[in-house]
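Human:
Care to share another protein and its fold?

Assistant:
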Amino acid sequence: MVQCDFTGQVAFITGASAGMGAATARAFAEAGAAVALADVNRDAVVRFADELTSKGLRALAIECDVANEQQVADAVAATVEAFGRLDMAFNNAGIMIPPAGAAEESAQAFDSVVAVNLRGVWASMKHELAQMRRQGSGAIVNCSSLGGLVGGSERASYHATKHGVLGQTKSVALEYAPLGVRVNAVCPGTIATPMVDRMSAAGELDVDATLSVTPMARLGDPEEIAAAVLWLCSDAASYVTGVALPVDGGFTAR
């Protein structure tokens, strides 16, 4: 894990109860930050916050559906009320829908993935930026995907949302660079998370086929995404903004 010191700083993470969100929240907390854990699964995020606080780390559990802007606004406000400021954010919450042909996919499926993956990032940044603008500082990392850099058969809607995240990231990075706020994105490849496990079990992802086109020939670890996020939020990346960083075992280099 990248060694960073975030003592006295505050991080806000969406989709924080498992997978990449949990790994990143744990890494921030172990590096000295107070962490606000936002997740739609109340029981899971409370258990995770309890785990962190039992180790002497600072954590706040917040039930939040990022598709609901008011809940996002309330979550950011609760973070600032609890910890006094907001220095870093990892907008990680996202969903995957079952593969579907472009001529067959329902509007309901399209709307559901856009609501979380694209609108959720929009709402999260909107309210994070308002606080960071007041402070004159901050770093935001949005979770895109290798799907934000390439296309994918029968996954047009998902890939559209992840491309959209990169468009938001670059545009906001330009707007907020003069205001002391950096905005970047990570583009994970196929990572060993509960979501990937569910997709594999449902026959929606062929892991062996994925590994065959991944130069490193393995799944990524959530901690490897966390390391990238922490670096992007750290002073080591102080001149980095508007980037889409692939963390994908070489997939998009092909």
